[in-house]
Specification:
Length: about 600
Amino acid sequence: MFEKVLSYTGSYKKYTYAAAALMLLGVAASVLPFLFIYQIIEPLLDAGHPALAAGDLIWRVAAIAMCGVLYAVLYVKGLGLSHESAYHTLKNIRVSLQGKLEPQPLGTIQGHGSGALKQMFIDDIESVELLLAHALPEGIANLAVPVFIYIAMFLVDWKLALLSLCSLPLGLLATGAMYIGGMSKMGQYFESGQKMNNTIVEYINGMEVVKVFNRDGESYKRFETDVKNYRDFTLDWYKASWPWMALYTTVLPCAAMAALPLGAFFVIQGYSTLADLVLILCMGFGIGAPLIKAVSFMSTMPQLNYKISALEEMMSAPPLRQSARSFEGRDHSISFQNVRFTYKANSGAAGIQDPLEGKQDEVLHGVSLEIPEGGLTALVGESGSGKSTLAKLLVHFYDVDSGSIRLGGQDLCDMSVEALNNEISYVAQEQFLFNMSLLENIRLGRPDASDEEVMAAAIKAQCSEFLARLPLGLYSMAGDSGKMLSGGERQRISLARAILKNAPVVVLDEATAFMDPENEEKMNQAIAEVIREKTVIVIAHRLHSIVNADQICVLAEGRVAACGTHKELLAQSSDYQRLWAAAEGSAQWKVTAEKGGKTL
Ligand SMILES: Nc1ncnc2c1ncn2[C@@H]1O[C@H](COP(=O)(O)OP(=O)(O)OP(=O)(O)O)[C@@H](O)[C@H]1O
């Protein structure tokens, strides 16, 4: 574990070693006074010893004080270095985690849950601070204190020193047992903590829905179950550790356990002197506190070990299949060939039921589809038929289980995700806005765009009206997750992003989900700007909006049921006829596909 963590310290590794060395010197300085105390006490207790001269007494007292100062200085300096190394390491681990998560399929990342990810990124990585800033240097130093003291004891009187050592084996046995017991319970404890984190984040995010649908009791039940599980697993872990903790905290400081009765006997028998016994008993009292501190660091090791292993596991998940090649496709036609896909659910913590566990059903069952360049293809189908999944696979959020997806004849796995992203604009139902200015949110579409270009895209996306209402216009902040804007306004900002990006392929996933009759015309114009002269894939529930699409593909239960124009499908496809019948009477807006430009 130490090696794993130290591999992230980089050039600051020497700081950690220097901190440990300084603290060790500090420890030596804290033990030296016992020697001077001994030199002061010995002449007092031993009648045959010549009296200590006043000058000798003064310099010994001064040396004791100096040792105290030296200990404080070295300890503070050591702590400073260890913290510097620790916080640089935390930064390195976080950056490394982010770098290793980024190339992983979106499903793998989202599968962890936002609560667990937050816990990993913030809390678990933070706990490495304890290891590097304290457990390692302070632990070593605190372990060294007893070692130094025992050596000093042996120098004074080896027989009494051996008696003082008697408590050590029992104390260390208890510590080892606690460590082993702690490790065996750690998995459940740790995973129940992650699950509780996810549930709490979900509970808070879903508060609105819970309130609206009066589901307080139901969702509180899940919340309560996970909180209870965490309590139970934590207590389970503590209960496994408590008896051993009680044993070592009692036994370890008791260096006098055998040294006092047997030592007194030795003094009476003349095997040892009274001065030596007093000194050894005094030194014994100095062992307990550092030994318990060192061991208390040890008790955190199982937890830390588990967290670091979990971090390593998260970082080592296989990345998305992609190559470093740029886009070299012959055109922007799209081909899905026998695509099969399953969402991989993360298994839950041991003993905790994950609602998705065991339900990893295949979602797409061999989808084959040809989308010509420059055309408008609509994907329709009942809810859950796999339309959005197909769109997400096209933008390579996930890898297919089998089959292939090609853009201009080039497999998506044969190009980098960055290269693919340059070719495709994907506008999802709910586009995420960062809490920065609307200008910067739109500029994400093309980072090198000037303010004027961003403004032009915003105007084309029909944002002018609501931007005029905002006090700072395009420079207004979007708020947390874009909460300062309505759903329709957020949608138009994301359309502006796509207009600015001007990619040759556009995927609109329910892009009109937030359209109301009043904004219908504006949204249609905005979408027309995005899809002008592009290869367009539209996912739509409102069939009236896509009747003029070049091609309509009907998906049913993860398969392509039929493909053709509106007229052809109405004549031939029972699935489409059913959808059309259901759509009749719904919103009356329509797509017209024209050469050189399309309008909705
Ligand atoms: N992240 C996910 N994890 C697990 N299963 C998922 C996930 N997203 C979708 N699914 C499942 O995959 C299937 C297809 O979902 P998809 O969103 O592609 O359907 P859709 O046709 O777009 O539906 P809708 O029209 O309601 O948006 C559904 O059964 C859904 O439950």
